[in-house]
Amino acid sequence: MNRAAFVAIVSALAVIVELAGSGAAAFAAAPGSGGVSAQAAPYPAPAPAPASPAPGGPVLTLDQAIKTALADNPQVVAAQAAVTAATQGVVVARTGLAPTISVQGTGGEGTTTTQNVNGVSTVLPAAQSSGSVGIVGSLPLYDGGKTQAAVASAQATLENAQAALKQTEQSIELQTATAFFSVLSAEQQTTVQQAALKQAQDELALVQAQVAAGVAAQSAVIQAQSQVAQAQVNLLSAESQIATNKSTLQGVLGADVTADVAVQQPPAPPTQVSVTSTTVIQQALANRPEIAVAQAQVASAQAGVQQAQVTAGPQISVSLNAGYTPYSSNPFSNNSASYGLAGTVSLPLYDAGKGKAEIQQAQASLQQAQAQLSSTQLAVRQNAYQAYLTAVQDAANVTATQAAAQAADQALQVAEGQYRAGVTTFLQVTTAQTTAAQADVAAVTALYTYESALAALQNAQGLPILSSTVGGTS
What we know:
Blueprint: H1 3-29, E1 59-60, H2 62-72, H3 74-94, E2 100-110, E3 115-117, E4 120-122, E5 128-142, H4 146-213, H5 218-253, E6 262-263, H6 277-287, H7 289-312, E7 315-328, E8 336-346, H8 354-421, H9 426-460, H10 467-470
Parallel strand pairs: 1-6
Antiparallel strand pairs: 2-5, 3-4, 5-7, 7-8
């Protein structure tokens, strides 16, 4: 080969390298590609999802996803039905001292074989009819505290059901937010893997051109092919994870798990947690439904003690009764009316210790409920504080992984430049590519882990999870 031919080949290779390098750098700097240009200071935020519906499913914001889950998730529907049942239970309990009015009627047709008339039995000639119609009313005035105890118990049951509903709703909110961010994370990781595959393919094309020109060894092609194959595997895994995470989200929403769904990126979260640990704990103790459930159980146990005391003591009832019979087969009962005040007193003299045991049992249940309330308050404090620490740590991790991703991308650019200059091996380039791709994936993972941690922090305070809060506008 003469000198002129060699110079022409080297010049052509230089042009190819420059084109490949500029294309990779531009791709690395593109928003949402998972890479960062050397000049870019912050790690680019993930690109928002398109506003138009994606093929096969709607585009959901975080708020829309949460509202859908609260409306359609079977767990929420069941908890709402429990509240409805408990509400009617209070209505039933209050009827203990409510007036009642009923219409009563009797009737019959038959024969009597004999009738004693002056000591002589005679056979009745035909069947006799009998009947009456009347209106009866009753107004309980006092029942010894039974109704009051029953109402207190029913109200405690209602409070328990309401708190359980809120607890279910908050649990579904957190599950929805976690699944929502998991979908976004998988989609962004897929974008990163697509960038890594494109970069590996470009490097393979460059190395093949160098080998063809006789300025690179065939082993570099093998290394580049291995890098492309691994990038393809990583991309397939990331794409599969999108489908898995979407199925999980659809399940929480109460929808068909096989249906497609698209999610929209919420506003970027704050770089730091905006609340203090003291505020988080105070909010948790004031708002967490677990504490409301435990308090309702204490109230229910107190009502149980009251009911046991009423049952074991004297049974007293007073009621006002009235009746009117407009028709009766007995002529003496027609148009008859009656009214009066009735009362009963029952004093248990001996019950083999049953009443006393029931009172002691109810008191023990009350002590257990009170201890459970204290335990729940302690657990809520601990959970809220841990959620705060996790959010703070994840916020710091976002900053650290973004810096690491920038450094890895810059190191890759350096390695590529050195390889073009002939001062390093292609192995160094592939190593830098792997490190940069892993750093980009770690940055994406850290971002959505932080988003989920902010949602968990809202949940730990007993507050609703809103995209405006999780997104960092608060």
